[in-house]
Amino acid sequence: LPSSRVSLTVNGTRRTVTVDNRTSLLDLLREHFGLTGSKKGCNAGACGACTVLVDGRRVNSCLTLAVRLEGVEVTTIEGLADGDQLHPLQQAFIDEDAFQCGYCTPGQILSGVGCIQEGHTGSPEEIREWMSGNICRCGCYVKIVRAVHSTAG
Ligand code: FES
């Protein structure tokens, strides 16, 4: 099967791998790099559990081909904290109790970071709309939006 070599930076660490051309970024992270924080919910772009940042922009990593990512910077939930210091949005999720089962949480947080960086945080309604690609089966939306809103300031 065709494979390609790709070099990218993941959470600040440069990585070079040779992967099957069909490998998704999500599988690259989980299966090749052991970064299992990004979750595989639907594997079809419908749930947002796999959300990561690529060069600061939110993507569904299940829909992103790894071999297309030469030279990019990827941020996953494992790379968000600064040592023992949680990212403010991670702390806000704890403070607001913004999860139950936790499966969607890494994707929610990366999407929330993207939403804040994009400036789509003027109101709870705006946050809800710009995070509508992230599904929470436990229905924690009110608290998730509250966490993003309080972090955005
Ligand atoms: Fe990627 Fe659901 S696993 S959107």
From TrEMBL:
Keywords: 2Fe-2S, Iron, Iron-sulfur, Metal-binding, Oxidoreductase. GO terms for molecular function: 2 iron, 2 sulfur cluster binding; metal ion binding; oxidoreductase activity, acting on the aldehyde or oxo group of donors. Residues 4-80 form the 2Fe-2S ferredoxin-type domain. Transmembrane segments: none annotated. Pathway: Alkaloid degradation; nicotine degradation. This is Carbon-monoxide dehydrogenase small subunit. It comes from Streptomyces lacrimifluminis. The lineage of its organism: Bacteria, Bacillati, Actinomycetota, Actinomycetes, Kitasatosporales.
